Amino acid sequence: MPIGERVYTGFEILQQENFQHNERLFLCGLRSPKAGSAMLPGMAQKPGIAIVGAGNLGTALAVALREAGYRIESVIPRMQGNSLVRARRLAKLTGARAVLTSEAVKARILWLCVPDGEIAHAAVSLAEGFQGRGRIALHSSGALGSEILEPLRRRGAAVASVHPLMTFVRESRPSLVGVSFAIEGDRVAVQAARRVVRDVGGKSYPVSRKAKTAYHAWGTYASPLLTALLATTEEVAALAGVSKKVARERMLPILLETVKNYGKLGAAAGFSGPIVRGDVETVRRHLEVLRTAAVPRQVYVALARAALEYLPAKNKNKLRLLLDSVDGRGLEP
Fold it and tell me: Fewer CB within 10 Å: C terminus or N terminus of the chain?
C-alpha cells in the first residue's frame, strides 16, 4: 500500500520499545492529546516548528527548541508502531501534537530528523499535499546536502541542511549550547536556520555542499570512531586482567584530562607517552604483547603512524622502521 494510504488500526503494537531505523513515515491522521503547559516567553514571536522523527536527535532538538521559546506544533513519526509511541511521548513532553500526515502540519518550519537513508523517501512522502509557499524545510544530515529535499522545494518551500556537530544517544540528551551547526541551502532557509541555532545557544557556520562528505567524516572521527577506539582500549585492558567495566572506571580520569589538555593546549602540546619520548623499546614490547589481539594491534600501529605524521616525537625514523616491520603474524626478525 503506498505511503499516505495506510490507516492505523490498533494500539497494541505501540507497547513495543525497540527503535528500528528502517521505519518509514506513517502518514495518516492521528493526533495525541496536547500537553497542558504555559506558553514560554517569546514563543508567540517565533515560528512554529514541526519535527519529523522522534528519535534521539529529534527529541533533543525539540526539547531545546521548546526551552528556547519555540512552539513545537507537531511531531510526525515514522511508519511502525514504536515510532508512534515515541512521537506521542515527545509531543506530550513539548506540548505538541503527534500527527501522521503533512497536510495536518501548519508550522512554518518542517525539520526532518530521520536517518540519512530515509530522508529522500520522507521528503517525497511529506510533499504529498504539502503547501510549501512561505515555509521552510530543514534536515539534519551531516553527509547529505539540501538538494535531497527537492520534492519539498518543488512544493514552494525554501530548504537547507542544518547539522549539529554533536552525538545523540538514547540514554543522553545533550545541551545544544555552544554546539556548532553546519548550514547550507537556500538563502531564506539558511537565514531562518541561523536564527534558530542562535536561539538554542548554538553557533552556525556555512559549509559547502561539496564539502559535506568530508565534513561528516570529520565528525565521525570526533565521536563514533573515538568510541570505537575506547572499545578497543577495553580489549587491551582485558590482556592486563581488567574487566571492561573496571577499565572504563579507571580510564575516565586520564581520558578527561587528555581531552582537557587537547582543548586548552592543542594536540601537539597535549601529546604524551612513549612515542613523544622516542622510546622504541617500549613500543616494541607493546607490539609483542598485542600479538594475540589482532585488531587492537592493527589500531595501535595505525595510530602510532598517525602520531609520527602529525605529532612531535623523538627517534621518528627508528619508530617508523619498527612499525614497518609489523605484519599480521608479529614483528619480523
Answer: C
Same domain, 226 and 202: no
- 6 domain-assigned: no
C-alpha grid cell for residue 295? 585488531
Q: Is residue 6 a contact partner of residue 28, using CB atoms and an 8 Å limit? A: yes
Sort residue 330 into left (φ over 0), alpha (ψ -120 to 50) or beta.
left
329 found inside a domain: no
Strand, helix or coil for residue 247? helix
Amino acid identity for residue 331 in this structure:
L
List pLDDT tens digits, range 67-78: 999 999 999 987
Contact 177, 67 (CB under 8 A): no
In DSSP notation, 82-108 reads: HHHHHHHHHHHHHT-EE-S-GGG---S
Given a contact cutoff of 8 angstroms between Cβ atoms, the answer to whether 182 and 142 are in contact is yes
Per residue in 6-39, is it b (16+ CB within 10 Å) or e — as a string? Answer: eeeeeeeebeeeebeeebbbbbeebebeeeeeee
Going by pLDDT thresholds of 50, 70 and 90, the confidence category of residue 188 is: very high
Q: What cell was used for 180?
A: 556548532
Give the range of the structural domain holding residue 259, as residue numbers without chain letter: 222-324
Q: What is the dihedral of CA 155, 157, 161, 163, to 10 degrees?
A: -120
pTM of the model: 0.82
| CATH, residue 101 | 3.40.50.720
pLDDT per residue as tens digits for the range 311-326: 999 999 999 999 999 8
